[in-house]
Design goal:
Structural class: alpha/beta
Shape: globular
Bound molecules: uracil
Strand order of the largest sheet: 1-3-2-4-6-5
Helix content: 40-55%
Largest sheet: 6 strands, mixed
Number of strands: 6
Distance between the termini: 58 Å
Order of helices and strands: HHHHHHHEEHHEHEHHEEHH
Length: 288
């Protein structure tokens, strides 16, 4: 880095303080990435459906460009979507169109209506076996998951693997996903708008993978899937349910998030009880 004069240094500190306050606390790559140059390069016409999910003027301009790509003016740089009801409505419309998990993943990859995508490196869609009877659903990817593009690969994922092994399961016998598929910057809590924008995608993912049992990991996942606003310490340990769009009722066991268990190891015994319930339910359903 070029050396700075004494007058410039305070500005740099201010800039770093600004980044830290905005939640930018991790370097994902050794070299900086110019996202503005990247988005300017994405000159291909935008499919009408994806452009509908882009914010106001950008969406209209991209749709125009997509209709007539020869005569199209230079494509506008993609702005991060301001989360609002229009984005959630676009997500709902697109998610229902997915006829398979592969299609859903493609739709989510092309979706520009969630601002979290602008700062994330990857779409963290799923890991494990989509045909498994058990689906585990966390809150949102962290740094390791964003880097690898897979859910639960960091420390909490390693603990989750040990918990699954304790009831005789592994990633070949479980399907893993998150309520939010893009890492929130600095691992901040997703806003209610961001959660509403992502809700149709995880609901469709559940409907398409058709698990017999769901384990929700942590409060936000339990709240979204069961519709209960209660805290996780109240919700955990008793069966709740999630009803899909076609009316299928799936039992949900809310339990403590592995990241919470890493910070509060004394509560591992509570999670252990919850997973014994899950094991018993899978046995009852003939899945174990
Ligand atoms: N925490 C989550 O909720 N999901 C992950 O994928 C990783 C950590």
């Amino acid at each position: 880095m070029a050396s700075l004069s004494g007058n410039e240094r305070p500005d740099l500190r201010d800039l770093l303080a600004f980044y830290a306050a905005a939640g930018v606390d991790d370097a994902l790559e050794d070299e900086p990435i110019d996202r503005f140059a990247e988005s300017a390069q994405r000159a291909a016409p935008v499919p009408a459906e994806a452009s509908r999910a882009m914010p106001g003027d950008a969406g209209r301009a991209a749709a125009e460009a997509g209709r007539n790509d020869r005569a199209a003016p230079p494509r506008p740089t993609m702005a991060a979507a301001v989360p609002d009801e229009a984005q959630a409505a676009a997500a709902r419309e697109l998610a229902t169109k997915a006829a398979s998990l592969d299609e859903l993943k493609q739709i989510m990859d092309a979706f520009e209506g969630c601002n979290l995508k602008a700062t994330a490196k990857s779409l963290v869609f799923a890991d494990g076996n989509p045909d498994a009877d058990l689906m585990l659903i966390g809150e949102a990817p962290g740094r390791d998951e964003d880097l690898e593009g897979l859910p639960f690969v960091g420390r909490s994922g390693q603990l989750l693997d040990r918990i699954l092994a304790a009831i005789g399961l592994d990633r070949r016998s479980a399907y893993l996903a998150n309520v939010i598929p893009w890492r929130p910057p600095g691992n901040r809590t997703p806003t209610p708008h961001e959660t509403e924008i992502c809700r149709p995608f995880i609901e469709r993912q559940i409907a398409l993978s058709r698990p017999k049992v769901i384990v929700s990991l942590g409060g936000p996942s339990a709240n979204l899937l069961t519709g209960s606003p209660d805290g996780i310490l109240r919700l955990r340990g008793t069966w709740k349910s999630h009803t899909t769009a076609d009316g299928t009722v799936i039992p949900v066991m809310p339990t403590l998030h592995p990241a919470y268990l890493l910070r509060n190891p004394a509560h591992k015994k509570l999670a252990w009880r919850d997973f014994l319930e899950v094991k018993a339910k899978l046995r009852e359903l003939g899945s174990l």
